[in-house]
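Problem 3 from the worked examples.
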Amino acid sequence: MLVNPALLLVFLLAILLICITPGPDMLYIVATSLSQGPLAGVVASIGMAVGMLVHTVAVTLGLAAVLAASPVLYEVIRWGGAAYLVFMGIQAWRTRSELAETPAAADPVATHRVLWRATVTNVLNPKIILFYLAFLPQFVDAGRGHPTLQMLVLGLTFVVLGLLVDSVIGITAGRLGRWLRRRRGAGTILNRIAGTVFIALAVRLVV
């Protein structure tokens, strides 16, 4: 097996938690689905997945080139990634969920526009690239060889699981939105759990 099974299990649990934690992508999908229906929510999820695929390919190929060219740059990326993960963890702990305050759009939008807007929204988010740089290498087993291919497989796994989770969220966004408006603290709890995971990953990255 190309990817270490034990690391893969930890990776799946980590990305599942990340995928279900309220964030910008979820806010966009919920708002789109609330105003345009389940189909638009699924299309928006596909757009987000396309954007993640772009990030996966870019980071995998770019990081491989950096690692091959300069160990110094690798250390800079490693420590920078750890610092960014700590920053994300602190922000997650300090930020209350805004999911219940997301306004629904009033006018219907064509399906191809929903797809395009979701894709562009995700591609133009530079934090995803920084997160990938900090996150994916931690689950690469150097002893198995082919680190670039391992990162690509891990990235594609992230994309597929994210698409599945986002699609479910898109289909059930109306009910989910009503539930979260009644229980505003749920999003905050998820944010704090995610913040703890981010900080723990930062510690693992530097140690």
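Problem 4, a separate protein:
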Amino acid sequence: MWKDKNVLITGISGFVGSYLAKYLLDRGANVFGIFRRRADGSFPKNLLDRGIKPNDVTVVEGDLMDIYSLAQAIDIAEPDVIFHLAAQSFVPRSFTYPVETFQINTIGTVNLLEAVRIKDYDPIIVFAGSSEEYGLVISSEQQYKRVTEKYGSIYPEPENIPELPINEKNPLRPMSPYAVSKVHGEYIFRNYYYSYGMKTIVSRGFNHEGAGRGPRFVTSVITSQVMKLKFSETDKIVIGNVNAFRDWSHVMDIVRGYCLLVEKGRIGDVYNQGSMRTNSVLSYILLSLEQSGWEVRKIETMRNNKVVNNPTEIDTSKMFGIRFEKTKIDRMLLENDIEFNLSDKGILVYTDKGKIPVIFDPERFRPSDVPILMSDTRKIQRIGFKIRYKLIDIIKDQLNYFLKLENRRCLI
């Protein structure tokens, strides 16, 4: 399928773009990538980390805000396939710089589609949407009561509770400027399919992680701090909301999914990509500690006397109609048996090597947050998709990446 195909990747120098480029090169594709000129003229680190040399790919200078540069890039690549990954993708930044986020993610997407349309090329174009588009997902009657008390109204109102796992027909309730921009970009993609017959496909990717994930993303914030603990470069972990649940996939599972959509996906359609499991930020911390050599025995809040013994005990029971691997603390959080908040100050993790403080930082809490994400990927499974990696595999890859001192130093 991919041998000698011309593939253009926007955002090739990013975390996912670099993995996708390597995957395609290994299958004989001619890979072209758009990214902005660097002041020092250096080749992107993410590509070097993937083992990609400057001569392996054709790098084209371009900017999503400049349709002229995009048209030039398309002329150079003559693409059979375009993966549109470039975006301002850091959710907290979107609250601080909403205009920038909409310019890149919305106007930039229009510019790319217009450039393809005007130049009269006919590639398959995959849009990297996001699970953040689903936003405020209702997981229980108790949660529904809490959010209605907080917000007053919810739109659309839930038809069924719980709204999990999330399939492609779930309502979209974006909770950040980033999420809204991705909804907008997705609808633009679908509009160009309906209006001009362009071969667009939308992927709503749930969180995907791995070695080299940006230092500001929560999984890297966690694993880099754990490795700093390992090397006695810090004596604590500082974090935001540990109650949040995410559907974490390995980046290579998502990359294979992107390529499968080109090979077998239906033009004009929307597909979830994820792992069909959900785990808490707190579990990610505790499991990262265990994978780094600590035996986690107990956790206790610094205030309010909340105690859980054996919090990482594995539970494979069904929840939301799906059997998936989670921890004891995950299940307790999901069943509303416990919750952690700023008044707790933090958590002490009791291990075989002493206590590790996990401090709650109010600056790391978002103005509005997505409480839980868990994908229903049966639609993409019907065209052949399979998950290969477990949560522990992702954690191991990230921890190994931060064994290097230069990578640990990138923590913000």
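Solution to problem 4. The chain has 14 helices and 20 strands. The CA atoms of residues 227 and 233 lie 8 Å apart.
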